[in-house]
Amino acid sequence: MLDSTIFFTVLTGVMIAGLLSYLFYLQRKSKTEEKQSKNGSNTLQLQAYERLTLLVDRITISNLISRTSHEGLSARDMQLRLTKGIRDEFDYNITQQIYVTPETWNAVKNLKEKNLLIINQITSALPSDASGLDLNRALLEYIMSDGKANLVELVSAALSYEAKKLL
C-alpha cells in the first residue's frame, strides 16, 4: 500500500512538473513569436517608407521630365505624359499607405496633387502651339524660381524621419 502511495505521489509530481514546463515553453514561444511578428511588421513598414521615398523621387517634376521627354511632342502631349507618369507611379504604390502614418501618406498625396496642379497650370498658361520642350523649360524655370514649388525635400525628410523612428 505504501509503495502505491509513493508511486502516485511521484507520478503526480512528475505530471505537475511536466505541465509547468510545458506552460513555461508555451509562454516563451508566444513571446518569441510576438517579437518576430513585431520585427516583421517593422520590416514591412521600412519597406513602405523605402518605396514611398522612391515614389517621391520618381514624381519629382525634373525627374519626370528627364524620363518622359521626347522631341516633337506638343505641350499638351507632354502634359499628358507627365501627369500620366505621376498617376501611374502613385497608383502603383497606393497600398503602401497601410504601413505608414496618415500624416506621411497625406504628405505624399499632397506632393502628387501639387505636381499635377503645377503641370496643368503651366500648360494652360502656354500658347496653344507650344512644344513639349517649351513646357519642360517653363516647368523647370518655375521650380527653380519658386522655393515653395519644390515640396520634395520636405516630403523626403518626413519619410526619412518616420523610417528612422522604426530603427
Overall description:
The protein has 167 residues and is mostly helical. The chain has one domain (39-166). Helices cover 81% and strands 0% of the residues. The protein has 6 helices and no strands. Helix 2 (61-68) crosses helix 3 (75-92) and helix 3 crosses helix 5. The N and C termini lie far apart (65 Å). The relative contact order is 0.13.
Q: What's the SSE blueprint?
A:
Blueprint: H1 2-58, H2 61-68, H3 75-92, H4 102-125, H5 132-145, H6 152-166
Helix pairs in contact: 1-6, 2-3, 3-4, 3-5, 4-6
Which shape, going by the Cα principal axes? Answer: rod-shaped
Q: How much of the sequence is in beta strands? A: under 5%
Range of helix content: over 70%
Distance between the termini: 65 Å
Largest sheet: none
What would the average pLDDT be, to the nearest integer?
88
Instruction: List the total number of helices.
Output: 6
What is the radius of gyration? 29 Å
Order of helices and strands: HHHHHH
Extended strand count: 0
**Uncertain ranges:** none
Which structural class fits the helix and strand makeup? mainly alpha
User: How many structural domains are formed by the residues?
Assistant: 1
Entry summary:
The chain is mostly helical and 167 residues long.
Q: What are the defining features of this structure?
A:
single chain; 167 residues; mainly alpha; 6 helices; 0% strand; rod-shaped
